[in-house]
Amino acid sequence: MSGPRMMINLLLDRLAFTGTARVPERELVMDDPCQADAFDAAGSDGGILEFLYLYHALQATTVIRPGDAVLDLACGPGNQLVLTATLNPDSDFVGIDASPRMVDKAKALVARQGVKNVEVCLGDMTDLTGFAAASVDSLTCTMSLHHLADVGELGSAFSEMGRILRPRGGAYLADFGRMNRLATMRHFSSEWKREQSPAFTRDFLQSLQAAFTVSELTGAVAGMGHAMERFTTPLAPFLVVFKTGWRREWSPQIASRVQSRYEKLSPGQRRKFQALSRWLLAGGCELPSRM
Ligand SMILES: C[S@@+](CC[C@H](N)C(=O)[O-])C[C@H]1O[C@@H](n2cnc3c(N)ncnc32)[C@H](O)[C@@H]1O
Predict the structure, then answer these.
(1) I want to staple 9 with a disulfide (CB 3.0 to 4.6 A). Which of 162, 184, 230, 239 is the partner?
(2) Can you list the positions of beta strands (E) in the chain?
């Protein structure tokens, strides 16, 4: 996530006259065993996504208050959900996913790690009728919006989020944005191909091709009816983050929990964490503590 090749790709992406058409995910709901296993492995301890999960967990923690009822939409195999819940032991988390296989994986992870503040169930983020209006204090959704079929479903998901989130609740939503060139997408999906499985590399490229544009995402977020700030990685919207303002004090206890997770990352993962943090900081997205 740094170096001359990335910079050339970003500049060419920025200068491109036209974008590429969206290619929706072949597996909208990730129930294929090979794809689900590859994604789970990438997010488990020592997997390629560990640094990204810590980044999102840290950002999500700024909008979650102790005592909050938090809903994580499209939680997948639960690696992100469990990490965020571990950093916030005084809040209660529910994760939903539309894939029975992912729900089983997430439940198994929660049981294996003995996490007490997380429940997982089957659910569709475009239809949250099981949740009453204004019943959720905070919402999280990471790397999942690109799994929706089209802009109509994206709008439904955000209007449902707006309905169930209580006034002045917290939200941290992050996903890829659609970049202009297939070559830029190929660069990112294969940048670390030696550290990831071929199935994950294929899935990563499909995800980038399925990403919504920044304006599609921004339009849908407006339909949520809650004030959110938007941040994107400069030059190309590799990552797009929407978040509400900070809702908590950054106590020494949280800082030390986060620091100890950071220290468990390998040196390579720490470098990726730092590179991502710098890139998003250049887009205005600040981190609560320096690591
Ligand atoms: C790439 S995974 C991301 C999982 C997790 N949020 C993370 O950051 O690791 C995307 C997930 O979205 C789920 N998904 C797709 N469409 C969904 C929907 N309409 N409602 C709920 N989950 C959905 C898929 O089954 C898959 O588990």
Answers:
(1) 184
(2) 69-73, 92-97, 118-122, 136-142, 165-176, 229-232, 239-243
Each residue's pLDDT tens digit, 86-121:
999 999 999 999 999 999 999 999 999 999 999 999
Alpha carbons 150 and 253: distance in angstroms, whole number: 42
What is the CA(75)–ligand 1 centre distance, in A? Answer: 6
Q: Is the confidence at residue 128, as pLDDT, over 90?
A: yes
Instruction: Give the structural domain span for 235.
Output: 26-179+211-282
pLDDT higher than 80, residue 2:
no
138 Cβ closer than 6 Å to some ligand 1 atom: no
How sure is the predictor about 17, in pLDDT bands with cuts at 50, 70 and 90? confident
Per DSSP, the residues of 7-21 read HHHHHHHHH-SS-PP
**Which CATH number does the domain housing residue 262 bear?**
3.40.50.150
SS3 96: strand
Ligand 1 centroid distance, CA of 9 (Å): 28
59 Cα–ligand 1 center, Å: 19
What span, in angstroms and rounded, lies between the C-alpha atoms of 67 and 148? 31
pTM: 0.96
